[in-house]
Specification:
Layout lengths: L12 H5 L5 H5 L45 H4 L12 H5 L45 H4 L12 H5 L14 H8 L7 H4 L3
Length: about 200
């Protein structure tokens, strides 16, 4: 950079010393952040070049971890807009939501930023607590096509092929008969001879 680009019409030592040292004095017209991030450009940029910029996201309200560490800045900060960028999972990943919004926006109750899978879920928070052999059953065996809500909970619904009595003891009040027979323990069904 030529001296005259910064020291315009400087004739004395006092003129040279009074030349602004901050970025904003010379570069405010080219500030893609429109002054919203304050005058400390050096927090992200260097005087050797404006790009690539290095932002310490740990100083931001939204800390980067997991897969977010490898996402290009422009994928989230469209048109260099940094403040007001959405921070909810659904704001960015709605098009990839296999649950199609049916489970709300609290994705982090089952998923992490390290990857969508494997997902974890505490089934004790649901109406159908997992006990016995159900604790080792693959989720997809019951939740066909990722459908979580409305999955049948009656024993007979899933175990009809194992019914040795060919349906002669099935009644419409399936939950009541299950409870009386000890089906809520799941591991006792074969011992009772129900299936």
């Amino acid at each position: 950079m030529a001296c005259g680009q910064c020291h315009i019409n400087d004739k004395t030592l006092a003129d040279l010393k009074s030349t602004p040292q901050d970025c904003v004095s010379c570069h405010s017209a080219k500030d893609v952040h429109w002054g919203r991030l304050g005058p400390d450009c050096g927090a992200c940029h260097t005087n050797t070049g404006w790009v690539p910029a290095a932002c310490n996201h740990d100083l931001a309200a939204f800390k980067l971890n997991g897969q977010h560490l490898i996402v290009s800045c422009g994928d989230c900060h469209v048109n260099h807009v940094l403040q007001g960028t959405p921070t909810t999972c659904s704001a960015c990943h709605q098009d990839k939501d296999v649950h199609q919004g049916r489970l709300g926006a609290a994705c982090d109750s089952c998923h992490t930023t390290h990857g969508w899978t494997p997902a974890t879920y505490d089934h004790n928070l649901s109406a159908f607590k997992l006990t016995g052999l159900h604790t080792t059953t693959a989720c997809a065996n019951c939740h066909i096509n990722h459908v979580l809500q409305g999955t049948p909970t009656g024993c007979y619904t899933c175990h009809v092929s194992q019914d040795k009595h060919n349906g002669q003891f099935v009644v419409t009040a399936v939950p009541a008969i299950q409870q009386e027979a000890g089906c809520q323990h799941h591991s006792t069904i074969p011992a009772l001879g129900l299936l």
